[in-house]
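for the writeup, i need someone to sanity check this before i put it in the appendix. the sequnce is what the collaborator sent (i think, or maybe the updated version? ugh). structure was predicted straight from it, no edits. if anything looks off just tell me and ill rerun, i have time this weekend
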Amino acid sequence: MRIFISTGEVSGDLQGEMLIKSLYQVAAEKNIELEIAGLGGDRMEATGANIIANTAAIGSMGFVEALPFVLPTIKIQNLTKKYLQENPPDILILIDYPASNLALASYVKKNYPQIPVIYYIAPQDWAVPMLNNTPKIAQVVDKLLAIFPAEAEYFSSKNINVTWVGHPLLDRMQQAPTKNQARLNLKLKPEQTIVTLLPASRKQEIKYLLPVMCQAAQQINQQLPGVNFLIPVSLPSYLPAITAAVEQYNLPAKIVQGNTLEAIASADVAVTKSGTVNLEIALLNIPQVVIYRVHPLTAWIARKVLRFSIPLMSPPNLIVNQEIVPELKQEEVTADNIARETIKLLSNQETKQQIIEDYQQMRSLLGTVGVCDRAAGEIIKLANY
């Protein structure tokens, strides 16, 4: 059985890795031999999948930010089409990465209509309908595997074939260390106050978020001199910039490579970019401050031309449709604001406790463990194996 998986960015590579492991396991139980190829990153490749192009580092958020990736993306799309012509799969799986994935699905539906297309980790139209991916999804996707109940309801109401499987991070958290174990592994003292900084999974975030995060860390350190910082590195290519920033701002920070979960689990508070990592932080019961900003021209186009507004941006807040963790967007992303919110979480036990209680409500909406196995079962069933 041939499966082709298409994804991009660091989070997509992680989701792809988890799904591939379950696909191999479910296939083995059914005595099916699998051949998996696709677009992804090092994690997917480590499972034994044939990665024809590495897309972990080419993701972007915003109009201006996407420009440097237009030509590389076209090149990868052409390479993918050639591969599919020579190696038509039994099924195509899309993970996140909507612009490229919907273009690929359109090509497959037009040229290979017999190949079923599954979308897993779909675009967030259910939370932000103005994204307007739904009409295209309805045209080119045979099955959507929803990770949120509200997502399943939304796409089902649009006459799309949906099965709710739950959120795969529930499976990933089964292997997460306790705070004490994580600190032991990272050679940190149990009594230390730790703030984990998570600035980037995309290259643009190194530019727009890392400096202001480090400036905020400076302020936190001045006001609370005992605080130490951890900075996990999501891609090896980001290490030089992060190392330079730590030196430039003279931060008492430990850079962590390859152990993001341990860096999160060790924390008393996390300061983080918006994204999938917010859910990992929430599932580990770590209070967090979520920040995001894009190029000013991107923000202007979104607000003035497209009339685009995002009341909530982080997954924990979107799932319960209320702000359970503080968010700072665009002009609000200043060192003063980040430092103020972080110090509030470090020093106010009542606020921390409320966030942890709200996390439990959020977690109750994510389903039950075994998500990736359920998704794999649906995929193999759709391929008629």
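The longest strand covers residues 227-233. The chain has a mean pLDDT of 92.
thx in advance!!
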